[in-house]
Design brief:
This protein is mainly α. The protein has one domain. The protein has eleven helices and no strands. Helix 7 packs antiparallel against helix 8. The C terminus is likely disordered.
Amino acid sequence: MDLNYLLIPGAYLLGSISAAIIVCKLMGLPDPRKQGSRNPGATNVARIGGKKAAALTLLGDMLKGLLPVLAAHALDAGALILAGTALAAFLGHLYPVFFGFQGGKGVATALGVSFGLHWPAGLAIAGIWLLMAVVFRYSSLSALTAIALSPAVFYWLMPEPPVIAAMAILAVILFWRHRSNIANLLSGREGKISFGKNKDL
């Protein structure tokens, strides 16, 4: 058995470590699964705990996508294992074994995975998110647009079929996790990013 395949369950376990829950506990904040949108992610942490807590959550969620994929690169794993490691880290965030399988929506972890797979692709995806956020000021719309375009970005910059397929699967799952945000966008009820205020990223 190729020991590199152990990267996949390892990535899932690392992804299962919820930065939002840990940060909120260490900072004496309410459980993000019980406050605000009840989503253990950076945006909800920003609402209940401010920018510092949100930044730490964002960093943690990105790192758990980034680090296992970088480890796969360092071990010279093939494209199939790279793709499996990326998906496993993402699914760990969404369905964490350590927290009753109640995880976040996966945007930051998906971005970390993208940087780990190919940093220019990650930079391009982050740039799309930033452009959409500045122009339209909807965090969910920015994330959905960036992730929807991610398979095309990887097709252009890292044309490995398993990796492109993994990003496409990731995008479909992320859209499913954001179905309430999509409904709010369509009905005009989605909240906008408030730059310069503490409650939002």
